Amino acid sequence: MWKRQLVLSAPGKVILHGEHAVVHGKVALATALNLRTFLRMTPRQDGKISLQLPNLGTQLSWEAAELQPLLATFSVEWPEAQPPSAEQVEKLKEFAGGDSGHEAAQGVAAAAFLYLYLSVASECGVLPTVDILVWSELPPGAGLGSSAAYSVCLAGALLSGCGIIGYPLQEGQEAARWTKEELDVINRLAFRGEQVIHGNPSGVDNAVSTWGGALRYVSGKISALKSVPSLRILLTNTKVPRSTKILVAGVKARLLKFPAVMEPMLTAIDAISGECEGVLEAMAEDPSQEHYCRLEDLVDINQHLLNGIGVGHAQLDRVCQVTSSHGLHSKLTGAGGGGCAITLLRPGTTSSAVEGAIRELTRCGFECWETAIGAPGVSAHSLSCLKADVQKALTGR
């Protein structure tokens, strides 16, 4: 077991284009959001394993001897493990407790940790005694990939800590990333954590969180875009709850009822994804204002199409109206029906325009972050080089 403290982070994700159309075989572009989840793993010498989740107000611990009997039960042919069974997940939840509300979120998070921990322990043949603290900038349940960032951080830390993969951070470095082969191992294990949490995830969220940048997803196939630029955005959470399942069903019902109307709109959304992919790759070599103008046009067109297929919301329209009054361009991201919107901030956008938009959006009851997309994937860090608020969250000081 690794004898030093490990510090990692992994990004969230936003869908840039392709929402809902992707369900019907079209392309979606997902990109890493530079609101991150951070993890600190510290070796312990007292035979205990502890998990601290301050965002959930939770601290759990187990004796290694208490988990030992589970090692045989959860032993897997790793890393090509079978998906976690419902029986395994329920058994792991028993160790955390909780079956409703806040306690249910705690139980699922703990079950994912225990599944990943036991999977790695079964491979390396030992139950490492560690303290793990996970703190996130990502709001949970907002469609921003918070659970995937959590699973990716856990996978990277446990795999590195047990020596299955290396730990890339060298003395004197502020940040470092794993090799492509090691990232693939992290991604595969993190997907198992996502299966514990969500049952049948697409794999997009954990892939974006692992690799960073932007990914193209179509019909179950995931591929990375080349040389994606980092783009400044304003992210706005309307705080309107919504059901992805109900919204997806609504689009399907409209497609069956009005195929001649809906099919062209879904095809147009697919074409927007293709156009955007080309613009992003061109921007890596020539970040001209013309490319930003094209991106803004695509954002506006896609927002109208998403309203047209029935996944808009009055509060998302309000975000678009407010930002438009400041010369900015916005669209919903994710399932729609509420949730979050993204606003492009081209180079040269004045701070007064951004600050004015944020003030007005905040008065509407929304929550805003100025951040970036196209961010790096899972990374190892020197704790001393992280932002002060992150250091405080990870150390309690």
Quick recap:
By secondary structure, the protein is an alpha+beta fold.
What this model shows, in words?
With 397 residues, the protein is an alpha+beta fold. Helix content is 45%, strand content 21%. The protein is built from twelve helices and 13 strands. It has helices spanning 64-73, 86-96, 101-124, 146-161, 180-198, 204-211, 244-257, 259-283, 289-308, 314-324, 351-363, 388-395; strands at residues 6-17, 28-43, 48-53, 58-63, 130-136, 175-176, 214-218, 221-224, 231-237, 329-333, 340-344, 367-373, 379-381. The strands form two sheets. Strands 1, 2, 3, 4, 5, 6, 7, 8 and 13 form a nine-stranded mixed beta sheet that branches. A four-stranded antiparallel beta sheet has the order 10-11-9-12. A hairpin with a 4-residue loop joins strand 3 (48-53) and strand 4 (58-63). Helix 1 (64-73) crosses helix 3 (101-124) and helix 4 (146-161) crosses helix 6. The radius of gyration is 21 Å and the shape is globular. The protein starts with 5 loop residues before the first strand and ends with a helix. The model has no long low-confidence stretch (mean pLDDT 90).
Q: What's the helix and strand layout?
A:
Layout: E1 6-17, E2 28-43, E3 48-53, E4 58-63, H1 64-73, H2 86-96, H3 101-124, E5 130-136, H4 146-161, E6 175-176, H5 180-198, H6 204-211, E7 214-218, E8 221-224, E9 231-237, H7 244-257, H8 259-283, H9 289-308, H10 314-324, E10 329-333, E11 340-344, H11 351-363, E12 367-373, E13 379-381, H12 388-395
